[in-house]
Specification:
The complex is a heterodimer of chains A (79) and B (200). With 79 residues, chain A is mainly α. Helices cover 68% and strands 0% of the residues of chain A. Chain B is 66% helix and 0% strand. Classes of the chains: A mainly alpha (79), B mainly alpha (200).
Chain lengths: 79, 200
């Protein structure tokens, strides 16, 4: 069974972005999750950072201009 | 492990062509240069296909080649490296800058969230402008992590740096992005009346 000690706001905020990115080990992830359940301020911060990250993800170009795609297709055929 | 076949290589490239082209466009800030960069990177990738150890790591491997190709092209065209090519340096303020901390009012009613309103008012163009204004080494890491959704391990592979460097560079880059976004919003008159209460 993992340790269930509580963490404070400072510790939670230090690793909040890694938490949002899903880059923390299980135990650290769970510690922050527990803190967010009881801390409204950190929860609001998490919501804000998550939404900003989501907004940035919408900048990804899903479509490549046809001319560029054709050029790459021709290049690949030539290998 | 067998070297990747021509068909498999083509399929892998076409599967990530959108992100590759998107990152190239934001690196070069020019569509024609982006096309050239992607084509050159794919050619180099094909020539170096024996160095691809793990097919599952194709995306990170290809981004690494793209990044290296971009850097080598830049070195050829510049008489001396621009400031952007220098290692990470930023002020502490930039690293810790947080729009949330500027706007959040803990004692407002639950439905009053100035920080969320700020995000609601942001346009795609505002985000594009802020991203484009970042120094190159910050722009790349934000593009890979937040725009294209790579994991830290993949970014480390793509940029040829340790994972610890990805963590610290990303933290600085996100602070710098929020600082820039804050300035972009101010120029557009977006900041709410609660903004700037802790501004220096």
């Amino acid at each position: 069974m993992s340790e269930t000690h509580s963490i404070g706001c400072e510790q939670a905020l230090q690793r909040l972005l890694e938490f949002i990115d899903g880059e923390l080990p299980d135990e650290a992830h769970e510690s922050i999750e527990r803190h967010l359940l009881v801390c409204r301020s950190c929860f609001s911060r998490m919501e804000f950072e998550t939404r900003l990250k989501h907004r940035l993800s919408t900048l990804s170009f899903s479509d490549v201009p046809t001319q560029s795609r054709d050029r790459i297709s021709d290049l690949l055929k030539g290998f | 492990m067998a070297t990747i076949s021509k068909d498999a290589f083509a399929a892998e490239v076409l599967a990530i062509l959108g992100p590759l082209h998107g990152v190239a466009r934001r690196l070069t800030k020019n569509d024609a240069d982006a096309d050239d960069l992607v084509a050159e990177s794919i050619t180099r990738g094909w020539q170096a296909r024996a160095s691809l150890i793990d097919r599952c790591a194709f995306r990170a491997w290809m981004f690494r080649i793209l990044n290296n190709t971009f850097i080598s092209q830049r070195r050829k065209t510049l008489a001396r490296p621009r400031e952007e090519l220098l290692p990470d340096e930023s002020s502490g303020e930039e690293r810790t800058f947080s729009i949330f901390e500027r706007l959040h009012r803990p004692f407002l009613l639950w439905f009053a969230t100035p920080e969320q309103e700020f995000l609601d008012k942001l346009l795609r163009e505002d985000l594009e402008r802020a991203l484009a204004a970042l120094p190159e080494h910050y722009r790349v890491v934000v593009m890979l992590a937040d725009v294209e959704g790579l994991k830290y391990g993949e970014i480390a592979e793509a940029l040829d740096v340790p994972v610890g460097t990805v963590r610290s560079r990303l933290a600085r880059a996100r602070g710098a992005l929020q600082r820039t976004l804050w300035d972009v919003a101010r120029e557009r008159g977006l900041q709410t009346s609660t903004a700037g209460r802790t501004s220096a």
